[in-house]
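Notes taken during the Thursday session

The instructor put the following on the board and asked us to keep it in front of us for the whole hour. The protein is Cellulose synthase catalytic subunit [UDP-forming]. We were told not to look anything up and to reason only from what is written here. First, the residues (728 in total):
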Amino acid sequence: MTPTFRARIAKAGNSLVSLPVWSYPIFQWLALSVSLLFFISVVVTPLSLTHQILFGLITFATAYAITRVSTNRLAVLILMMLSSAASLRYLYWRVTETLGFENWVDAMFGYGLMMAELYAMLTLFLSYFQSAWPLQRKPAFMPPDSSTWPSVDVFIPTYNEPISVVRQTAVAAKLLDWPSDRLNIYVLDDGRRDELREFCEQAGIGYLIRPDNKHAKAGNINAALEKTDGEFVAIFDCDHIPTRSFLQIALGWFIKDPKLAMLQTPHVFFSPDPMEQNLDVFNRVPNEGQLFYGLTQDSNDLWNATFFCGSCAVIRREHMMQVGGMATESVTEDALTALKMNSIGLNTAYLALPLAAGLATETLSRHIGQRIRWGRGMAQIMRNHNPLVIKGLKLSQRICYLSASLHFFYGLPRLVFLTAPLAYLFFGAHVFQAAPLMILAYVFPHILHAQITNLQIQGRFRHSFWNEVYESVLAWYLMRPTLATLINPDKATFNVTAKGGIKNESYFDWVLARPYIILLLLNVAGMFIGIWLILTSGGDQSLIYTAVFNLVWTTHNVVICGASVAVAGEQKQLRASPRVNFSIPATLALPTGHRFVCHTSDFSADGLGLVMKGPLNIELGELVYVSLFRGDEEEIFPARVRFNSDNRIGLRFYELSIEQQVRLSQMTFGRADLWAQKWVNTVPDSPLSAIRQIGRFGVRGVFLLIRESGKAIGNRASRVWSRRPAQS
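Then, after some discussion, the predicted structure tokens were revealed:
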């Protein structure tokens, strides 16, 4: 299809939408009523197998033509409607035609699967609503006269994180471009550490403590609010390093909108999370949170339902105090605070510009612990501050908050999907009371349309099928705490997510992998049973079709469970300060006085790598001086050589003063252009590539389990043998 033809189609669609007749309410209501009646008829009309297959083919062809003609917002909305029609048609058929169970075994497994499908369908439709029209808010400029700019307090709450991590964020905060007489930086130390207090005194940074740790991070911030008086509060987790331009870009909307209570910016990470690290997909596959910060928050912004995420955000003090400060009734105090602000008519906003970057969780156990806290917090909100009934919210806001609250309940449905075909393979249970071909005729349009639509909506932020891997890794660990918190919301407690650790060696986390291993072995057993059923079917076509259907489903589950096992293979991380791959102009000065032009390959708070124009004869441990450039600015730092090979040299900074640490941050982490270049800078989504990629990880997980099992058996045998009494 030529670009000219696509342009003509798009122009015709825009002309149709812009007709004057649509400005009259009567025509709007008439069009809506006719469309709704047509939509309902499409959903509920019964069709034969042949006609249902034809329905699927026609809708697939329509969706394909739309994706080829245009990718604008109208095209995405049409894809959503096609997907919703196919999914609701499947749901209507599922409820009316497939639940006539004949025994309690069929009913138990069948209704369990039906409930999981209803949850998945609800979250699908809620996500469509949320992502229908991202606002794509642009920055608002500050007034030219900086003497009119408001006062800002920067809060950096910390508890037990490494002081080196806190120090890096604090020195970067000193570089914020804001009038110094209206900027105050405070480290809020719930760990009450003398070393951190001494650093803050030397660096000219405020240091605040309190007598207890009540209500954890929320209580820490509320205690600081009582001791400070800035008109605005910028909050950064102690591992999130802001760029110099953060305040100037973030504060403009507060000047423009007096009712704006909070503005959130993305959480960007310069280190890989355990899934990225252990599967080696960092900067190649969007991480788990990129969909939320790349699309969901931008879409929530349209509905004035942006969530506060606890860091990289600015809050108007007056409005925060109107809701009683940071909420303490939930362990996700940030989201609840935003909910309270929205419920009293205040606005929240999202600016999809990366203005800070932080550390991701290093190990799978820490990653799971963090997600459990989020899940518990959203369950508390669902139970005690249900967005469907809380006063003051608009319908669109209720839907956005409901979607966020329901998201973390995917644990049980995901486990159901990973075991559902085993009900037939192990127990002969028929969870669908329908012919296999009819099931496929209804299931395929539902699943494939959802994939096509989400590819168009989410392709930049989440690759196809990766959602199943992310959810499967966390499902078992989220299921119990979220359901328990929903029943008893007062038992959830806040836990700090540790950052900044190292892993001295690679290892396989047998404890965390146990649920994935059990699921993997069950599905592998199911595969063999499915093959056996086909081979012993005696030509029974119905049995063969049913067995093949469940065998294909089980094979899919083996791949997903295998990939989950692969995630438990922790890779070593020897650097306590992760390095950022970024090229900065530099020169290297030797003690002899010679200077060499070069550029960085990466940097961290402790050192950097240099790429020279050729090999350089320099001894390890030698003291050198490296200059870093930003435009016409040059800063010089002492360092010792730690590595020298070919044209690459590794340096470790040597005895930097606090002032030098500040200047280093200015030339590296504080650069305004750094994170913008890395934002959503992954390999484009390709469903076929994603299938091959996840398939490889599934196979890797199976072989990893075999290898580690062999090691464990060998080690156990060695211990038993070593305890045998010596032969005389």
